[in-house]
Amino acid sequence: MEEHKLLSLEAFDTELKPYLIELSSSALGGSVQSCSDDFFASKDNLIKPAPSVSRKGQFGPNGALYDGWESRRHNPTFDWVIIILASPQSQLQYLDIDTSHFSGNEAPASSVFALLDSNPTGKTQLSPNDSRWKETLPVVELKPSSRHVFELGSAARQGIYSAVMVRMIPDGGMARFRAYGHPLPPSPLSAWPPPETKPINLLSPLSSARIVACSDANFSPPGNLLLPGRGVDMSDGWETRRSQVDRGKYGHGGELEGKERKEWVVARLAGTGVVRYAEIDTAFHPGNYPMVHGGIKRFRIFGHPLAPNPNLSPTDVSTIPALPLTVEAFRPYGQVIQGFSLATSAPKGIHVNTANQGTASKFHRLGKVRETYPKGLLKMGGLYIACTRAESKMDVTEGRSIPVMMLERHAHTSQAFIPMGKDTVPGKEPLRSGGAYLVVVALNGKNDRPDLSTLRAFLATSAQGVSYDQGVWHHNVLTLDAPLDYALIEAQQIGEPGHILDVEKVLPDNPMAFVQVPPHNAFGSQTQSIAQTKFEPPILAQLTNLLPSIPQQLNDLSLPSLIVPIPISPAAFAPFGQLILAYPDADSRPASIDAQPSPDGKTVKYARLADILHTYPQGSGAVTGIAVFRSTPKVGLIRGEVFDVRFMERHPYTTQAFIPMGKAEWQGMGEEALAPGGEVLVIVAEGGLDDRPDPGKLKAFIMPSSIGLSYAPDHPVLVLDATLDLACVETQISTGIPEPDERDCELLEWSEQPLGKLAVPARSMRQKL
């Protein structure tokens, strides 16, 4: 039978390695279970994905440091290490034994054994004396500070294995050990899977998928595309060289001169199957994302392995997966409204600038606000903001298949839903933490009905809002896991129930499709009530049962400009604007609020809480939209201390609404959740005779994240304790890039003597005295 052979490193690295699966790598889930001795250097270094580095001249308690595995001297036989492969059933083809940086203390020789464990959970402790070990590589000599790549013999390549044992004969050091091969692919299904069957990643290397070829791998190899996780930095994705016009292979005399610029990779799936959806991840590639060329972090194709069968046909009703809500995927249907950790993470074309004296990043015009009703039909007025309280529709802890039994559209208005925060004012119970929602959308077809080939479902966190474009078919928002309050932005309807210009519904007798929702524990929600947030206030003096306390140094209330904030309420804030919140308690709900319960009683809409108005001159170019301020705590705004009010602003031509958003994440699928906590300090003033804020009429309110507001008077918005995303509904001419328009905002500053002094509450409203 064919014996093992030593390969050329250049041939292996260029022709074979990029298209093989490193089954022993810790990056794929390989692990070192045990060893005979690792006195000088840890056994776990053996399977690190990165090459070994030199630590020459560095010493620790046991001696010289090495990036590898090194045993003590004077072993009479051999040392051994047992490595659990990433796949429980694998075929081995090549072994790479590396002694880099070990010279004089390298292992002089080595041999490798492998076995198949019938119960390969990784928890069973394997013994080096187990009779199931089979020799895959006989004793071979090793050179100092060198890589040795062996192709296994035919007998070894035919075996199925779950673990390997590497021997160092008699002792010494190895830098890295890499076992290359292919896992066994999953067994294909013989029939079309039922709707509840969870799709798998058909491009997983642990299912034997692999890279076949690529156009370029100048900076990093395409095999990284198939790795699990999202990586750690730019280095562990696939990145090509730049291929600009008149440069490189596309330049004059290049092999691709005059051809379309593109880079490509070919991958082999785990087997035949049906594809449900693809996932492309560009994490850690902010300035070199793939636009003709660049970098991609991960690429996955989800579906079901299916045996070829010419008579096989899908079921009459399709099942679509609930995908993570992203700007790009949702673009055909509307916009996603959310904050971003970096300006470079914002959607392409979105203007981002610094706002509020450097304490916020403003993401402009993320969502559209439009209405095109025929003139005179809107009996109740134009665009407005409402609030909807929605109970959880169903338990999806273990995942669930949900039938799509209705779709609706609004031909003459956009419609936005923005989940709100959950902290509330004293005396009110906050909503249960958690919460997500399902968004189901479809484009209009040629028959003026939903085109089910465009039906998509998205799973949104409470940190994400959506705005449906006019005419887009959509299901009612399905709240999952826990109740949520949503700010709702739309045009006021005609006032005639069921009028087709307001809403048109499709209600079939049978499901149009099924949506497969993943288990809700995929959400790494970090949402926490402010009541649970710990603060360390200074020594305090109690003022009233409404305020937790004011600073000790403010006991002298003779200061004429001292402002004491109070909890915000509709009545107290009425002279300055309108509040946006749910009113579940009918006794406290103002009589003017129109409460509209849904037929199932799980949703209540509180209509027209705040109007969206502007008086910009016609032709000014002003646009109404939804922005997001990622607002950080104001510098100098410290609980228990005095804050000088030195800035006020007003918007002469527009109302401006701020809606605190929820805090959550779908772990590994997008932006990380903001830290829990955060209240908003609202400072407002009535105008004086000089058309400037009247210091004697300066007022301040503390607003929790469950309440939004809309106002037009002079104001700043300041954030306490923790970063918040504030959705902002406004009309403006400019986004500030390249230049602001002075008509959008008038900013006043008091640099010498502050307009007023504020007693910042030392405790959150939700904290007990």
Briefly note the structural class of the backbone: mainly beta
The CATH homologous superfamily of the domain at 5-183 is termed Galactose-binding domain-like
Q: Largest sheet, described in full?
A: 7 strands, mixed
CATH architecture descriptor text of the domain at 5-183: Sandwich
3D shape: elongated
What is the strand content? 35-45%
Stated plainly, the CATH topology of the domain at 5-183 is called Jelly Rolls
CATH class of the domain at 5-183: Mainly Beta
Overall pLDDT: 84
CA(first)-CA(last) distance? 82 Å
What integer value in Å does the Rg equal? 32 Å
Percent of residues in helices comes to under 10%
What is the number of E strands? 55
Which regions are unreliable across 5 or more consecutive residues at pLDDT < 50?
524-560
Number of helices: 4
Oligomer: single chain
Verbal overview:
The protein is an all-beta fold and 769 residues long. Among the domains are: 5-183, Jelly Rolls (Sandwich), CATH 2.60.120; 200-315, Jelly Rolls. It has 4 helices and 55 strands. Strands 22, 27, 30, 31, 33, 34 and 37 form a 7-stranded mixed sheet that branches. A 7-stranded antiparallel sheet has the order 23-32-29-35-26-44-43, with no helix packed on it. Strands 24-25-45-53-48-51-42 form a 7-stranded antiparallel sheet, with no helix packed on it. The radius of gyration is 32 Å and the shape is elongated. Mean pLDDT is 84; it is low at 524-560.
How are the SSEs ordered, and which strands pair?
Blueprint: E1 5-6, H1 9-16, E2 21-22, E3 31-35, E4 59-60, E5 63-64, E6 69-70, E7 79-84, E8 90-98, E9 109-115, E10 134-141, E11 147-151, H2 154-157, E12 163-169, E13 173-174, E14 176-183, E15 200-201, E16 210-214, E17 238-239, E18 265-268, E19 273-281, E20 295-296, E21 298-305, E22 319-324, H3 327-330, E23 334-337, E24 352-355, E25 360-368, E26 383-390, E27 400-403, E28 407-409, E29 415-419, E30 436-442, E31 456-461, E32 465-468, E33 473-474, E34 478-480, E35 484-491, E36 504-506, E37 514-517, E38 540-541, E39 550-551, E40 562-563, E41 566-567, H4 570-573, E42 577-580, E43 594-597, E44 603-611, E45 623-631, E46 642-645, E47 647-650, E48 656-660, E49 679-687, E50 693-703, E51 708-711, E52 717-720, E53 724-732, E54 746-749, E55 756-759
Parallel strand pairs: 22-31, 22-37, 40-55, 41-50
Antiparallel strand pairs: 1-11, 2-14, 3-7, 4-5, 6-13, 7-12, 8-11, 8-14, 9-10, 9-12, 15-21, 16-18, 17-20, 19-21, 23-32, 24-25, 25-45, 26-35, 26-44, 27-37, 28-36, 29-32, 29-35, 30-31, 30-33, 30-34, 38-39, 42-51, 43-44, 45-53, 46-55, 47-54, 48-51, 48-53, 49-50, 49-52
